[in-house]
Design goal:
five-stranded antiparallel sheet, 212 residues, alpha+beta, 2 domains, six-stranded mixed sheet, globular
Length: 212
């Protein structure tokens, strides 16, 4: 490999590395400020009943969020990287009966696009908490737009004690993984990339001049 090829390869690797590091910088929610709302949709649009603004990476972002004034209905929400875990922690049984088109959580304020979302705790583990809550259907109750993720609890339920045909105290969670689109490089990233490409051109001209 001659000097021209060596210099060009090294410079190109530097440029590509710069773009790759900038593009992957927001593959995680850590450090981002997000809006979480709990609300309902009667079929004409989502109406928030309660909300929280959180910074991801600050431990348990939402602890024991109360959703009822009459009963002890509470949820924890924990973020980690591109993962989100909703865990029911209320002392009363929880049961939504599908009265609304949507009754649950919506997360918004994401500075990059959500390209996909999936439920990760679909495999049942006996006698261990963290299994998918009863009644939640990942194919219909999880939805997303480029900037929001919605978890519909209108058919979900949790019982502290098993009942005939329903009730499983180890099915208390909804765990998600998001596929986040690479961020568009910041102006500084484009500048570094441009400088790198310029350097490739300079090196090429120098090497050509030396051969001449």
């Amino acid at each position: 490999m001659n000097k021209q090829t060596t210099f060009r390869t090294a410079a190109l690797a530097l440029v590509l590395g710069t773009f790759a590091s900038v593009a992957s910088a927001h593959g995680s929610l850590d450090g981002e400020s997000l809006l979480i709302e709990y609300g309902v949709d009667f079929g004409s649009g989502f109406t928030a009943l309660s909300s929280r603004t959180v910074t991801v990476g600050s431990g348990l972002e939402v602890s024991g969020w109360p959703l009822s004034s009459a009963k002890d209905i509470r949820w924890n929400i924990d973020f980690s990287g591109a993962n989100i875990a909703f865990t029911y922690v209320g002392n009363d049984d929880f049961m939504n009966v599908g009265t609304f088109a949507m009754q649950g959580f919506r997360i918004s304020g994401m500075p990059f696009e959500v390209e996909g979302a999936l439920v990760t705790n679909t495999e049942y583990v006996p006698n261990v908490k963290g299994n998918l809550i009863e009644g939640f259907d990942p194919t219909t109750d999880l939805s997303f737009t480029p900037r929001t993720v919605s978890v519909n609890l209108n058919e979900s339920m949790y019982h502290h004690h098993a009942m005939t045909g329903m009730g499983d105290p180890v099915r208390d969670a909804i765990k998600l993984h998001l596929h986040l689109a690479p961020a568009v490089p910041e102006p500084s990233g484009w500048l570094l990339g441009g400088i790198g490409l310029l350097g490739v051109g300079v090196l090429r001209r120098r090497s050509v001049g030396c051969r001449a």
